[in-house]
Amino acid sequence: MRVLIIGGVAAGAKTAAKLKREDWDLDVMILTKADEVSYAACGLPYYVGGVVEEEEQLIVHTPQQFEALTGVKVLTKTEITKVDRVEKTVEALNLYTGRTMVYDYDKLVIASGADSKRLQIPGSHKNGVHFLHTPRDAELLRRDLADGVCRQAVVAGGGPIGMEVTENLIGRGIRVTMLDLAPQVMPGYDWEIAGYVEEHLEGLGVHIETSAALLEILGGERVEAVRTDRRTIPAGLVVIAAGIQPNTEFLKGSGIMLMPNGTVKVNSQLKTNDPDVYALGDCACVFHALSREAAWSPMGSSANIEGRVLAQILNNRDVAFQGVVGTGICRLPGLNAGRTGLSQAGAEAAGFEVETVVAVTDDKAQYFPGSEHFMIKMVAEKKTEKLLGIQVLGPGAVDKMIDIAVTALSLGASLEQLSQMDFAYAPPFSTALHPFAQAVHILMNKMRGKMDSITPASYRAGDAEEYKLIDVSVKPSLKGAAYVDLTKIEGEVEGLGKDEKLLLVCKKGRRAYLAQNRLKHYGYTGTKVLEGGTLFNRLK
Which of 245, 363, 441, 491 has minimal Cβ neighbours within 10 Å of its Cβ? Predict the structure, then answer.
């Protein structure tokens, strides 16, 4: 059987290698427009910043090494121009010779990936304007930075690539203005989490403008400024990271079903509407394991999972793709951000009735050197108390929190089950009561009526304006707020009415909850805890 694979990066390379390991006798061939296969696209921003020193470190295997290692034949600089499903052939242009070649297949795998959106902006051809999708893109950007002349840059796009590029530009001493057409940065995160990230970056000198359209790139041969729908911004460098688009133009007219965004629609067998044609990776539309709705997951991690599964399917193994849960993680300057599952907005759009909480916990024993904190937003279904999603910010090991949640989501765990999991503990690594379990407990307390609280989103929306601010920190720390010592609440508190609306605030939220518990015992009915405390919220 001949398996023809279009595309040779994560999805295509993984499928091909696993196919040959499953059955060495298979005839497997990769056709790719690029001149490389199996390169680490996710590492490109770090090569730009010098964290990864040599471009060769990003090349996992050269085409020759890949062929020798796997037994897969690789044809580079080969651009697919047509798929003929009746004849079961593909036409391809050899970019070395200019000749059109025809290749036949028994099974066709479309792993053509995606490319940076090439925005049609006047001036985007100028020197100093960059995209970042291939090692060649990264090399050009790094060369442009090498002379040290550029001191101010504009990054168009507030998604993961834009954030990682920004981090690496800041590391090289460049001032950055970030533009995004959307009303917030960090797509997929709820707006108060994204809002915290914006405030954090602004504090480091990054200027962020959301709901801002990039209209024109100004200058002579080289960029000198950009014009938005608001103002003109000086810039010696522009990086356009406004998202990606699937490489599926060659499928038009083939009869292969495409989604409105151009991705290839597949089922749990990664099969298209043609029984002999499959698709995976950045060019494919799979499904979300929780909502069961169509989902695009252009991630190297998803591509590798799909590639392994598809290779087994093509070798007649009884497996199926289980879907994605929307996992992502990103390193920002001084802050890591991760998410998985459904956001509050996503869960509500999918028809779930949800409860959420924002919790701040220590990330390891508080007394241990290097101890920091996690800021966690957790989402659960009210009816079943099953976890639906999590978003985490913090300077430390955000990935461990996300990976716990991925496991819970994949196995359909309830909050009660998660509350009793035997997580690893030692002071250098965690707290005795694991930070994930702490967030679960806080959410359970809220869902079961043991904690009455106001979310950061509600607070920002003005829902606490009628409440009297009560500082319950270890010592007075909020200017203009009445102070109450938690340890001295032993009955009626002078100056506080039992039916008065009281907003209890401390650094992280824990002392506020303890104070509420005591005040409730003594008959106070109008208290609310500010979730996330002063670490997460900017008090009005």
Answer: 491
CA gap 257, 238 in Å, rounded: 36
Provide the pLDDT for residue 37.
Answer: 79
- Helix, strand, coil shares of the chain, percent, nearest 5, are 30, 30, 45
In our burial notation (b when 16+ CB lie closer than 10 A, e otherwise), range 475-485 reads eeebeebeebe
Helix and strand tally (H, E) in the chain?
14, 33
Residue with token string 């053509």: 112
Q: What is the pLDDT of residues 395-429, one digit of tens each?
A: 999 999 999 999 999 999 999 999 999 999 999 99
- Closest C-alpha to 114, from 207, 300, 249, 245: 245
d(CA 252, CA 259): 12
Which token pair is 99?
A: 């000749």
In this structure, are strands 2-6 and 27-31 parallel, antiparallel, or unpaired? parallel
**Contact indicator for 419, 387 with CB cutoff of 8 Å:** no
DSSP letter assigned to residue 28: E
Question: Which of 455, 460, 458, 489 is CA-nearest to residue 472?
Answer: 489
Task: Fill in the amino acid letter for 518.
Answer: R
Give residue 20's region: left, alpha or beta (phi > 0; psi -120 to 50): alpha
3 burial (CB, 10 Å; 0-12 / 13-18 / 19+) is: buried
| The two three-digit tokens of residue 440, written as one number | 């679960």
Which residues on neighbouring strands pair with residue 379, listed in sequence order? Answer: 356, 389
> Would you mind telling me the total number of residues written for the chain in this entry?
540
- The DSSP secondary-structure symbol of 496 reads -
Question: Would the pTM of this model clear 0.90, i.e. be above it?
Answer: yes
Contact call for residues 499 and 526 (beta carbons, < 8 A):
yes
pLDDT tens-digit map of 186-205 = 999 999 999 999 999 999 99
d(CA 484, CA 524): 14
